[in-house]
Write a structure and sequence with these properties.
The chain contains 16 helices and 17 strands. With about 600 residues, it is α+β, with helices and mostly antiparallel strands. It folds into three domains: about 180 residues, Roll (Elastase, domain 1); about 200 residues, no CATH class; about 110 residues. Strands 3, 6, 7, 8 and 9 form a five-stranded mixed β-sheet that branches. A four-stranded antiparallel β-sheet has the order 14-15-16-17. A hairpin with a 4-residue loop joins strand 7 and strand 8. Helix 2 packs across helix 3, helix 2 crosses helix 9 and helix 5 crosses helix 9. The chain is globular and about 75 Å long. The model has no long low-confidence stretch (mean pLDDT about 85).
Amino acid sequence: MPDSRPLKIYAFDPSRGHELSNYMTVNARYEKVKPGPVGDYVAVIDYDASNGKYYEPVDLDSPAVMLGGGLEPSESDPRFHQQMVYAVMMETIRRFESALGRKIKWAPDRGPKTDPHHGKLHIFPHGIEEANAYYDPGLRAIVFGYFAAGEEDVGANLPGQTVFTCLSHDIIVHETTHALIDGLRQKFTTATGPDTPAFHEAFADVVALFQHFSYKDAVLDAIQRTGGDLHRPQLQADAKAEGEAQIRGEEAKPNPLVELARQFGDAMGMRAALRSALDKKPDPRLLETALEPHDRGAILVAAVFDAFFSVYLKRTRDLLRIGRAGGAVGAQGDLHPDLANRLAGEASKLAQHFSNICIRALDYSPPVDISFGEFLRAIITADSDLVPEDPWGYRAAFIEAFRARGIVPEDVGSYSEEALRWRPPDVVDPKRPLKRCTGLTFNVLGEPNPRQTDRNATVLHHWASANREPLGLSTREKEFRVLSFHPLHRVGPDGQLCFDYVVEFLQERQERVDPSDPQSQKFTYLGGSTVILNQHGEVRYAIVKHIDSQRRLASQRAFLGRVGVRSALATYIQGGAGRDLSFAAIHRGF
């Protein structure tokens, strides 16, 4: 049985044609699949709800398809659309599993177990005739839309041509990431403040953008056309114009590495990509007014990529200096192919590191109500746990980029690494003794059996009941849940195996948006903690969201009160205050 399955895809989207080696091959992890494709993780169901028809499913295990390394890219063949969605999703899943050190899980499937696709994520490549694509937590599905481009200012598209969102690499990765976050942190879809939907959007964009840097030919071309400065939004033209450009070859082109969903943006008449990695200069005041999820999320995206590009410039400064001294950098900034290859390799490797850092930080995040500042703390803690020494200043770059954009973590004394790291409860409050959790058993190299899972849940619940206060669980609320638990095992740069457990505890109660009005709308108020235990059952970190915090409750009431009246978020919350986000509404017009 082979280890991987080669499948052809578009590296960006169909509008780029063969440019920048837009036709590429992904080596998806091999698994036996049924026509669809239907595998262990996903079930591609090509039903077009707008036209009430099914499309013929692709059989990736057929000899003809396997010998050809998958179907050839095609805008008109629905079977290739199915192949592309499957291939890009499996590559995104692989990256998450590599970063987390375990198999991913989707959010719990509460549908009937008689469903032949129970437990899998449902994928509809042609689900709606609309300029939209979204993850639906209720359906446990990703729905991709298709639509007619506008008649004017549609870029590389033909006026009125059909644009398929399932053929945009960026859109597929973005939606898959929403589903992966929901599997890791189920309560991140609950609207608790402006950072909640913005974080979901930003994180999905971050993963999609970092994936660009795995496209070797695209990175090489951008390296050559920017003189090694990959953060530049424009690539140099093929020829220098004397005065105003007269032909297309004399026009600068957008840098595809730092923009998202160019075809979609063009088709909507924007004459630009949908979003970019570095959109605006750092402005700490923007967070005060940016409430729309994409606008606010763009601030977080920019902070992450500011850190990435700053470290890239630091790591490649010596190469460029040597190149200039040795004549490998021309007068016009042209680079010798050997130097360009070295820079491209450095950029790709660094992008993978930064993507892993961000993904690993999810395990170090609170179970509910995440803020941008808490994500910074999660990044710093997760990375320093795995790589204590930081000679290239990765963490310093993150801190400075977040600080420049006004992202201020709560309950810390400074922006130092020491202050930003999460701390164990007995350090925060030595007066609260904390007992070890004993009796946990995990099959580190495989999946736990149901009996083992039930036994671990019971052990954790009994232990947390006896240690409520230091774990951040209210004694006023009788009930709490063990929402999730799993082992963490990663290999650090020194080859040492790191092994911990991460557990989510959740408490909830009903509150009114306006406590002075007995008729005011109710919402579910959440609290709890993420607890990281070492292999001996000792608590290393407790990332707490106190349900007894009056400050948190007042802040959430104020937010939901604004949403109920008028807000940039009002249309994005299903059913009003305290409900889950509607990704279909957030992504309309993507």
